[in-house]
């Protein structure tokens, strides 16, 4: 077995972010009466709303990095626009509340089923394990602390984009990480859920992406190296096979 580097995205990769969004939304319904039309939203539609809010969040992320004082406005706006796309016209006060409760629930994060065992096995086999994530430094590090990963991933192997001049998918972010940890001579794999940020970012820096495509997004994959999985079980099977490769 040859030592390899497995670097993970955080949100929607190490844990299922939709479950936290759903918990925040359910707290909103309990706290704010008179929202009966929202209480009947099925999980499938709520998940689609969440995915759309992620899309709007990504659209504004670079702006927020430059103007952090606008963060709460844009965080609320992404939720409001996502609900509006599905026919629900929420007020700014409504989406301020949903976003606030969603963020509070992030202190209750848990790893995806099977993820802790997967990381422990990779570490036991001597592989390098790390994290590269877009986001605000304190918020992302608080999430990692809530996930109780300190015994599996060293803190110096965690890189948050806000602590650098770059964001995914910029190749400089990946290249900086690789250089800092002297990974140039290892086979490097980056595991993430976003095609635009994670797959393209890995390709840009000559890292092999493992795309956790839970949304079953259809894209033109081309002929570059890519491992494509659509569930956590598929991901764990793939990582086990890659880990064992000579």
UniProtKB/TrEMBL annotation:
One of its GO terms (molecular function) is phosphatase activity. It holds the Pfam family HAD_2. One of its GO terms (biological process) is small molecule metabolic process. InterPro entries: HAD-like_hydrolase (IPR051400), HAD-like_sf (IPR036412), HAD-SF_hydro_IA (IPR006439), HAD_2 (IPR041492), HAD_sf (IPR023214). Keywords: Hydrolase, Magnesium, Metal-binding. Its cofactor is Mg(2+). This is HAD family hydrolase. The lineage of its organism: Bacteria, Bacillati, Bacillota, Bacilli, Lactobacillales.
């Amino acid at each position: 077995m040859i030592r390899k580097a497995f670097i993970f995205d955080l949100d929607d990769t190490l844990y299922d972010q939709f479950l936290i969004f759903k918990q925040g939304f359910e707290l909103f319904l309990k706290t704010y009466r008179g929202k009966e039309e929202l209480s009947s939203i099925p999980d499938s539609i709520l998940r689609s709303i969440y995915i759309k809010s992620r899309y709007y969040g990504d659209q504004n992320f670079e702006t927020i990095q430059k103007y952090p004082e606008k963060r709460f406005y844009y965080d609320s706006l992404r939720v409001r626009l996502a609900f509006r796309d599905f026919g629900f016209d929420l007020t700014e006060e409504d989406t301020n509340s949903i976003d606030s409760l969603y963020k509070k629930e992030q202190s209750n994060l848990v790893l995806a089923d099977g993820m802790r065992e997967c990381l422990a096995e990779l570490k036991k086999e001597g592989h390098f394990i790390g994290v590269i994530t877009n986001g605000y430094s304190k918020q992302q590090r608080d999430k990692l602390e809530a996930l109780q990963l300190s015994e599996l991933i060293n803190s110096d192997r965690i890189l948050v984009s806000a602590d650098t001049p770059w964001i995914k998918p910029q190749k400089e972010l990946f290249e900086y990480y690789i250089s800092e940890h002297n990974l140039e001579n290892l086979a490097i794999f980056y595991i993430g859920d976003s095609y635009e940020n994670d797959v393209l970012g890995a390709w840009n820096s000559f890292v092999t992406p493992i795309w956790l495509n839970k949304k079953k997004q259809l894209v033109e994959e081309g002929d570059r190296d890519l491992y494509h999985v659509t569930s956590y079980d598929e991901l764990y099977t793939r990582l086990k096979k890659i880990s064992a490769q000579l």
